[in-house]
Every structure is written in C-alpha cells, then in structure tokens.
Amino acid sequence: MQNFTAHLHEEAGTLALGASLARALQPGLTIYLHGDLGAGKTALTRAMLHALGHTGHVKSPTYTLAEPYTVTIGDAAVNVIHFDLYRMASAEEFLDAGFREYFNHKTICIIEWPEKAETVLPPPDISISLAVAGEGRDVELHALSDQGVECLNRLKFAPNL
Question: Where's it found, cell-wise (predicted)?
C-alpha cells in the first residue's frame, strides 16, 4: 500500500492510529508530519511512543527541537528521535545542531514541521498529513520509499467509522 487516508472522528481515533502505526514501524524510517498547529502531530507521535513501550511523559520538542526516546521493537532497543522544527529560523540551524547524525538505519526519526529544513533533511519514507475536520481529523499517509511501502503494508487500522 502506498497511500492510506481516513477520517478520525475524535482524538481517540488519532491515538488508535498512532498505536497501529507503532506496530508497523521498523528502524531506519524517516517520517514527516504535516499539519497546522493543533492538527494532532504531537498527539500522534505520543501515541506511537506509548504503544512502543515508552511509559514516561512525551512532550513536544518545540523549544529543544529534538527529544530522544529508546523503545523496544522486537527484541532490539531502538532510538526514536522526535523533532519539532517549528521555531527554527533556517535549515542551517538543523545542520549546526548536528541532527543529521540521527538519520541512519538504526533510528526512527519523526519530524514535525519538516518544511522548515526540507532543503537539508533526508527524504521521508512516510509523509503524514493531518488536518482538523469538525471534531475530528482527516489523515493521509503516503509511502515514499520501499521501506515506507513495507511499513504501510504492515499497518492494520480500521478507522472509527
């Protein structure tokens, strides 16, 4: 599957999608999250991290730009780096911070506001767009690499109809 779209009627749908997506993730993925403020990017990321076993608080890295987490996928410890680039003034800030080193075959990188650094970011394996739609959200997932297609093929999610 290269694309997945759904309408999530309430926040519980966003959390359920995050949990389902977590079960499909593998190390090495780069995921872009697009959407306006309040669209649910951090809520989706929080749901993924909690479903992967992180028990602590998941905060938006709006001021720190990046928050690292270690989770277990299968029997392996995997680093997940949650980026929020909303406050970045330029793509060079991303490079100056040394963030490129996180993008490798062992780490999952989830990036909110990727357009702030897209000239220096590696291309995404999956691009996720969230938009407020009434009380819920419209979500679109697009696989943009072989690894992204494999991930979406593992996704088992039935939206709350």
Answer: Cytoplasm
Taking only the tens place, the pLDDT of each residue in 90-147 is 888 888 988 989 999 999 999 999 999 989 999 999 999 999 988 889 999 999 999 9
Cβ atoms of 48 and 110 closer than 8 Å: yes
Q: What is the phi/psi pair of residue 14, to 5°?
A: -65, -45
Torsion of CA 94, 100, 101, 104, to 10 degrees: 140
Residue of 96, 138, 142 whose CA lies nearest to 123:
142
Q: State the Cα–Cα distance between residues 75 and 129, nearest whole angstrom.
A: 30
Q: Is 109 helix (H, G, I), strand (E, B) or coil?
A: strand
Query: Angle at which helices 41-51 and 11-22 pack, to 10 degrees?
Result: 50
Cβ atoms within 10 Å of 27's Cβ, excluding its own:
17
Partners of residue 46 on adjacent β-strands? none
- What local confidence, expressed as pLDDT, does residue 160 receive? 63
pLDDT at 38: 84
37 DSSP 8-state letter:
T
Amino acid letter for position 41 = K
* Neighbouring residues of 67: CB distance < 8 A, sequence distance ≥ 6: 58, 59, 61, 81, 82
